[in-house]
Amino acid sequence: GEIVVSRLTKVYGNVRAVNDLSFTVTPGRVTGFLGPNGAGKTTTLRMLLNLVTPTAGQATIGGQRYADLTDPLRHVGAVLEASSAHRGRTGINHLRVICAAAGLPRSRADETLAHVGLAPAAGRKFKGYSLGMKQRLGIAAAMLGDPRVLILDEPANGLDPEGIRWMRGFLKSLATEGRTVLVSSHLLSEMQLLADDVVIIAAGRLVRQGPVDQVVGSM
Ligand code: ADP
Ligand code: ADP
Predict the structure, then answer these.
(1) Residue whose CA is closest, atom 23 of ligand 2?
(2) Which regions of the chain are under pLDDT 70?
(3) In this entry, which stretches build a coiled coil (predicted)?
(4) Residues 6+ apart with CB under 8 A from 14
(5) pLDDT for res 65
(6) CB within 6 Å of ligand 1 — which residues?
(7) Closest by alpha carbon to 181, among 216, 148, 142?
């Protein structure tokens, strides 16, 4: 599913959080969404996911608006903020609860937990998880429906170098499987590690889009 953002605008009072923004995100690549804090990244990602209503413009995923997807969890996975779970719940039970609510087979919880490398911590309680483990659990939750598109908002925030290396390998493997991966960050150094392509915004507007090496090399 290609993501197409077309002339998206979001106005809050007198703030243009997102201002006539257009870009596309290609399947099979990890696309970084880079901009300083307050640039409009979260607002854009939330408009993609139908969590914020655009003032103008539209966004589609695989040619459809998120609101029109018949089975959104199987199309699009989202990792939106420092992921949380009930403190006293184990990692595996957290995923099983989501599977049950979403009508997904219970076996998806085990498969997905293993996929993010958390099988050894399956029976440990969430409150004992490190930040990196919490992020992996959030990613696992987003992947339960085996979506073709994964959208992550600042997933590397606060991770140590080992956590970022893991994130890079994981996201690249998803892209290699032909999935669409859109990952935001306010750090250029993180984008250089994580992304193949980059979309740069500032003050709600597109600054540049292209392969990360070319775009960064020309800055
Ligand atoms: P980023 O994710 O790049 O840090 P955001 O999308 O969170 O940027 O914010 C963009 C701008 O919009 C900021 O000025 C922010 O304060 C403002 N903003 C975001 N959400 C809201 C909201 N719900 N109400 C009012 N202002 C908002
Ligand atoms: P909308 O329903 O227009 O899509 P949101 O769901 O993004 O807006 O935001 C709902 C409310 O949350 C906003 O009206 C605002 O009061 C508050 N809010 C959320 N984030 C921010 C922010 N960064 N700055 C100011 N207010 C915010």
Answers:
(1) 38
(2) 82
(3) none
(4) none
(5) 95
(6) 12, 15, 17, 35, 37-43
(7) 148
Q: Which ligand is nearest to the CA of 43?
A: 1
Round to whole Å and give the CA distance between 185 and 154. Answer: 5
Question: What is the rounded CA–CA span in Å between residue 157 and residue 205?
Answer: 23
Q: What is the pLDDT of residue 82?
A: 67
Q: Which stretches of the chain are assigned E, i.e. beta strand?
A: 3-12, 15-25, 30-34, 56-61, 76-79, 149-152, 180-185, 197-202, 205-211
What is the ipTM score, two decimals? 0.78
In 3-state terms, what secondary structure has residue 215? helix
**Helices (DSSP H) in 34-187: which residue ranges?**
41-48, 72-75, 91-102, 107-115, 131-143, 161-176
Identify the sign of the CA torsion 169, 65, 22, 38. negative
> Which strands make up the sheet holding 3-12, listed edge to edge?
15-25, 3-12, 56-61
Strand partners, 202: 205
Other CB atoms within a 10 A radius of the CB of residue 203 amount to 15
Return the pLDDT at 71. 86
